[in-house]
Amino acid sequence: MFFLDYFKKKDYKKVLSLDGGGVRGLASVIFLKQLEKETGKTVFELFDFFIGVSAGGLNALHFTINKTSAEKLEDFWTKDNLAMSMQKSFWGQAIFLNSKPKYNNESRTALLKDYFENKLIAHSDKPVSVLAYDVEKRKPRLISSYDNSNISVISAINATSAAPLYYPTVKIEDGSWLIDGGVVANNPSLIGYNEARKHFKTSNIKVFSVGTGLNLKRLDGKSSAEWGPIGWLRNDILGILAETQYDHETLSDLLKEDYLRINSSMKEINFSMDDYSFENLEKIKKMGMLWWSEFGDRAIKFLNSN
Fold first, then answer.
1. What is the C-alpha separation between 106 and 41, in angstroms, rounded?
2. Maximum distance among all alpha carbons in the chain?
3. I need a surface site. Which of 4, 86, 243, 300 has the fewest CB within 10 A?
4. What's the CA gap between 286 and 30, in Å, rounded?
5. What are the tens digits of pLDDT across the range 239-266?
6. pTM over cut 0.90
7. Please, where are the H alpha helices in 23-116?
8. Distance between CA atoms of residues 59 and 68, nearest Å
């Protein structure tokens, strides 16, 4: 089916893939804001297919459902909004010492209601998917505009970002119980490529992938041999489990120049997904701007080439 593509002028479909990473999802928005300024087009106009997980899923649905510009989306990532989306459960701070999630979903749902009302994911004018994980079926679950017409945007966001330990499992409209898709692939680029390939029935796919920073702090192997649950949690076990470097390398091998990955070490940024202190948010914004300095020219060339 795809063989005939080689005999036609290549008309690429462009995929935007957005990583999870909690508050660090703001860095992706900052980078994409610069991309909009440079091109004179919104993110919605620049891409044909959108996929995200966790915070990246939230951003992807802002871009597609409301056609929010990255500049306006930055206003969503305020300290006040983040505080509302991270209201502590009854057990408060003791996330690692009890059996309850750290945060509740009620305040987050109320916040999302202000932005998405009762819209369904099917209301997107372009194909969009967010990745979650079905805990009962023990398998990944894509919630997409082209397959799940009765799923609300708020349910999709709550599900794709229901990080274990942080938020409770989410029951969506079809009865499925879902958690954060980052447990499967925190970089959903490879999945996005395959979905777009099937959806558009072409192999002429370009994938533009934006991360949320990598924790490259060295771990001491000898010390790790003594760690229990608390030790591993203090040393970013969730980040380790969410790393999908192999998916990145696989897609690089498959697509070569048709794949561009925007990411870097997070350096002094707190690896915790829920540190929305002013100082940490400023560091995250700075990382997004540093990405533009490093990748901006390549990004423009990538999007303009056929």
1. 35
2. 62
3. 4
4. 9
5. 555 555 567 678 888 889 999 999 998 8
6. no
7. 25-39, 43-46, 55-65, 70-74, 79-85, 106-116
8. 9
